[in-house]
Amino acid sequence: MGDMDPHIFAVAEEAYKQMARDERNQSIIVSGESGAGKTVSAKYAMRYFATVSCSSSEANVEEKVLASSPIMEALGNAKTTRNDNSSRFGKYIEIGFDKKLSITGANMRTYLLEKSRVVFQAYGERNYHIFYQLCASSHLPEFKDFKLGCADDFNYTNQGQSPAIDGVDDAQEMCNTRKAFSLLGISDSDQMAIYQILAAILHLSNVEVKEQSADKSSIMPDNAHLMVFCDLMGVPREEMAHWLCHRTLKTTTETFVKPVPKMSAINGRDALAKHIYARLFSRIVASINTALKSTMKQRSFIGVLDIYGFETFDLNSFEQFCINYANEKLQQQFNLHVFKLEQEEYMKEEIPWTLIDFYDNQPCINLIEAKLGVLDLLDEECRMPKGSDDTWTQKLYNTLLKQNAHFDKPRLSNTAFIIHHFADKVEYQCGGFLEKNKDTVNAEQINVMKKSKFDLLVKLFEDDETTASSSNKRSGVGGRTGQSQKDTKKTVGLQFRQSLHLLMDTLNATTPHYVRCIKPNDHKAAFSLDPVRAVQQLRACGILETVRISAAGFPSRWTYQEFFSRYRVLMKQKDVLRDRKQTCRNLLEKLIQDQDQYQFGKNKIFFRAGQVAYLEKLRSDKLRMACVRIQKTIRCWLARKKYLRMRESAVTIQRYVRGHQARCYAKFLRRTRAAIVIQRMVRMWVARRRYQRQRSAAITIQCHFRTYMARKQYYKMMYEQKAVVLQKWARGWLAREHFRRTLAAVVLLQSCVRRIRAKKDLKKLKVEARSVEHFKKLNVGMENKIMQLQHKINEQHRENRELSEKLNSVEKTQALEKERQRKEIENLHKSDQEAKSKAEKLPSLLEQLTFLQHELEKTRKEKDDLEEKSKVYTEQTQQVVEELNMKNSLLTREKDELNKHILEQAQQLSEIKTNAEIAKQTEKDLAEERSRYQSLLSEHLHLEERHRDLREEMDLNINPDKSNQNRKDSIYSTSSEFSQSCGSTEGDDSSIPTEDETQLTVDLPVLLKLQRRVTELEQDKQSLWQQLDKKEEVQQEKAKELEKQRTAGRAELDLETLKRQELESENKKLKQDLNELRKSLTNEDNEAAPPPPGSLPYNTLLEQLSSSNEELEMRKEEVLLLRSHMVRQEALKHKDSALGEGINLDLDISSFQEADRSTDIHTLNEDGELWLAYEGLKETNRLLELQMQEQNRVHGEKNRKLLQEVNKMKAEKEQQQHLLAQSLLLPEEARIEACLKLEITRLTTENLDLLENQEKQEKIIRKLKKQLKLHMKRVEDFEGAQQNNPSVMDTRVRTVHITRKEREYQGMLEYKEGEEGRLLKNVVTDLKPRGVAVSFIPGLPAYIIFMCLRYADNRNNDQRVSNLLNSTISSIKGVIKRRADDFEVVSFWLANTCRLMHCIKQYSGDEVIMKQNTAKQNEHCLANFELSEYQQVFGDLAIQIYRQLIKCTEELLQPLIVASMLEHDTIHSVLGSKPTGLRKKSSGSSDEGAVTMDVLLQRLGLFHNTMSQHGMDAELIKQVVRQQFYIICAVTLNNLLLRKDMCSWSKGLQIRYSIWQLEEWLAERELVDCGAKETLEPLVQAAQLLQIKKKDEKDAKDICEMCTALTTAQIVKVLTLYTPVIEFEERVPTSFIAIIRNLLRDRVESPTLMMDAKKIFSISLPYTPSSVALETIQIPASLNLGFLKRI
């Protein structure tokens, strides 16, 4: 763009590039005369920046920057004689950029708004655009309150008499202005406030001032425009009218209010309008800056200066002076940058250069801003008290006229002066200079404005007040405290000069770019150029000199280091020298042949125009070629690597294919030879078998013929005698059979009807349970509970009163007891005195005295103990009373809590319902997502299988004979296995002995039930066998431990009894010796006199007595301890039984001694043996009572059972009597048939009971046999242990020692590298599931593979891990593909795949999973690899196997479903009657080969047992069962909808009976909660639809409410196909079907008629951790895995 003709976008692009390249701030200075196009050029420059750089923030800052232009043009531009859109202010916009060169924000500065245009316009000019836009939009409803009209109606807009601009629609411009306001974030309320102030200014212009006298004026308060102005501004009308015509004069002591003449009042009004507009303009600029401000960091900026151009009118005033002064400063900056600095730098760098002369306008600038210049004299005159424009003009003439050549005086005027500017000389009129420079406003008017109720107006003048206060502070600091605010206020000229200096500093700090706008003509004519006028502007702007210096100069320059860093890529390594200057010289001489295009300076290299662009092109070409070379090399390397990899793969594939072909050929030869041998043997076997059949057939024919002849002869002989007897019994038997069938049919019908009623009642109860009434009933129960609690509280109060009464009675008894003890103590004192008197007489009685003293001390101690007991008892009673009070308070709290709970239940109901709905929705969404994923997975797997099949077909094309032979073998094997499984089930069914064939034909349903029951029980035996063994082993271990404890306890009891007997014998001896000693001491009648006290024999006797007493006390304590221990041991014997529940084992001797007993101490012996005996008797009595209670309980249970049997017999008797009474009313044949049916039902029930008892006895026998074997084994172990080591303790120690020496395994299997194929061949490919499932633990192959995987992980070999897992996946897929029709194989590998996936997750090391493991399992976690991806792969493989399992199940169940659910009439054979329409299809007795419901249930049971034996997860089994039941439902319902002969009332009964059998099957296997029952709901509703009444509209509504799982098409189809087969049935009328259609027309459902029998529910694989410890798993020898080694 820089090579094209001059354009504003080229300048903007150059500034943008230099900012990006040099990282320096840039400026674009747009200058020119008024009307030359400066504003438009600045606008296009900003538009360029907004286009090339996007905003880095969320909001579009570039749009906001562009949106500021319409606002500033509306508020700051106006029509002049030279320009229809002239900028009457200057602005400088800084556009900020970040590191990515994106716009971050902007900032705007304005200069010298032309406020005088608000109140005055010359002829042919207009006021600011916003006023005309506002008047043009006055018809809008939001502007109605402003009371505006045409622009000609207001004084401020009609002075120029040119209210319109050609080609400009002010109303449309108003819309653009409002949109710009909104884009900048200014709210509608703030916009309306701005428009309100502008409207008020217009109304202020029409306020009329009337002259009362020469120096007095007034405004009428009822002036309409004044009223509107005051209303819009929110100021009082009277004050505003007063201060517009008055002003204040302040003296040192007083303040005077003085009226002003009319002209002064008008000038004051205009000054107020100008001040308000200026403040509003500043406020809007501040708002725009706030909107454009950004919080992001600014790296650099580009400034765009759009300032007023040079102006010269017929009447030039203060505004034109300031505008031309600003243009002089800009011209000086241009000269400084283009001429002075450029040439100075050339001289500094010593480049040969010829100086160019240019016009320097510094003298003109000095004339204006220097000391004693025009502005300085103007400010000085403004500070004078009586300064005027005339005096200021005279000062100018006197000071500047002869001293400055740029200043001149007009010839015919003394109130003007001329300044020779760079563009032209301008004559300025001095009138109004001082007033405009002062910019004064009446302070009282400002005060009135500050009292406004209008918020925006108050904010405008608050800003004014803050600026005034800040200027006061600055003046106070300067020491001029005596001056007033008027003196300290800055003049307009001073402010403008300072802002210009600040602008120059900003421009000098940036790299400037100049845009010179040339005005083509002065007539505002399009496409018209005045050459003289254009050349004049070019000369005045210095463009000619600029062209000369640009042609001869060097616009681009680099330092040597910068040039080297930038263009280093253009050099070779040998060209780089240590001297950077010389290196740069060599490079430039090599690249640029013309040496005149550049110059070398001291520090920089200078380039002429276009040379830097040429170097940049060379640099970009060099970089591009380097990129191409790098890409070429890398692509070559990648292509060669790919080729080598493909070549290696091709060689490997060829090697394996050739080896495979050779093996296949050898195998084909072996099979051909084997086929010949097999053919020979088969032909021989066929011929031999044919001969044997012919021989046996001949023998059989002879036998039957001979028996026929003998039987014929026998019948002929017995015919005459036995025919009558046989006829009699046969007819009787037939009559009884007919009666039994009829009775069974009636009972079955009654049961069906009762079941239907019961279901209806159950539904009603469920609805009531969900209703509010149910919760009311519950609340009634809660109220009853509250009443019961209240009753308990009352009882507690009553018990408290009784306890308090007992406490009083106890205190009374204790007082009596104390009185009695006091009397006894007195008696003891008396006896003590008597003893003392006897001691004086008889010194031999000293021992008795000491004994009595000892007894006295004991009684005193007992007294103290009793007193303490009484205190303790009183405290305990008080505690009991307090506890009861606390319980009472707790009960009251519970009552309140129950009331709260009742209220909370009602609130929780709604929450539970909403949560349930949310949960259902989430489950539904989850199921849909899961089904989508699994369908995609199935499609992917199907494509993989298709790919493999195509590969196999390619292989088969090579050797077709081999594939045919393999396919035949696989088909033969699968069919033979399937036939074996079917044969085994049939064998089980046929194993039941049948004695009477006639009974089978008569009672076939009962017999089928018995057969099904027997087969299911036999299947349950196998599934429960392992569980019983485990439980018995656990019980046996517990029994061992208990037996050891009992033997040890018995041995200790025996030792303790022996010790007790020895101590008791010694105690008796000591008692005898003590009695003998006492007798010898106290016997006065003894012949030998007692020894005197103090003698040697007396002392020896006393010592012996004391020692014997001490020994006696010790023996007493030991006996007591032994007795208490024995009581505990006896209690421990009965602790585990029901008799030991009430025994208290905490026997304390102190409690025996301290209990309440009689105070007669002499009634008890000395050592307290009687008390201990009494306590022992109490314990034995307690034991006997417990035994008696147990016996009573046993007798009660027996009596209860006998009563139940008696009641049962009574009920049977009553039932038989009732049936007998009914049968007597029937005819003879029906009576006989009913009796036969009753007898058959009785016999079947007895048979079932006997079978159950037999099974129980067999279980008991098996259990006893196991226990007997276990006990015999224990006896043998015990005898062997006694022979080896007689001590039991040594055996224990030795066994513990042996277990400690056992080797600990780490749960890993070591295998060599490359043995994966051998391992998987034995574990996966050649493994037979049936042998593994029966003999070993479930999931053994999965555990073996995972243990090998742990070994590979432990070795940290990722190759072995990936090989093992990939080989496992491919092997399992191969087995599933080969044996896809074998349910057992597919189920086995589904269980093992899930177990392997769960093992990978269980031992992954996840913290959440490790919390569920044992410590040993956590030690076995994988240490080096994270296999979550393989876990997902195994999950996908499990889903694939699951789908194959469902397909296999569907193929096996498909031929059984219709025959068992629809075609087989079990219910009709039970009823004994058949519908007339079906008699031809059903025979009197069911064929042996017919498919019945029992066959279907047996097949389902076989599936379930197979999955259970393989260790499949319970949740996965439930999902399989649910899918099986869905298949049954879909196939049955589809056939029902397609066959007219199946839609009848009896067939509905048959279907419901079959569904009941399926539900019973689910209940027996505890699968009710698997969701299978819900899948049968469409079939259940179809059966109900066949049986329900179908006549009136009420029936139709019932059908619509009932059949929610059926579609409208299905309901209509069933009703249309309904065919009556019994007399009381009728066809469904078409009117009834039409009612059904009308009722169901609003139902949203699928239009399809058939159910999708191929639908497969989405599968979920819940995580189930394994409890099997890896270190305990042993590898069976039958798997041929000897090459694996346990570590």
From TrEMBL:
The keyword Cytoplasm does not apply. Keywords: Actin-binding, ATP-binding, Calmodulin-binding, Coiled coil, Motor protein, Myosin, Nucleotide-binding, Phosphoprotein, Repeat. Residues 1-620 form the Myosin motor domain. Residues 468-490, 955-998 are annotated as: Disordered. GO terms for molecular function: actin filament binding; ATP binding; calmodulin binding; microfilament motor activity. It comes from the Eukaryota. One of its GO terms (biological process) is actin filament organization. Belongs to the TRAFAC class myosin-kinesin ATPase superfamily. Myosin family. This is Unconventional myosin-Va-like. It comes from Xyrichtys novacula (Pearly razorfish).
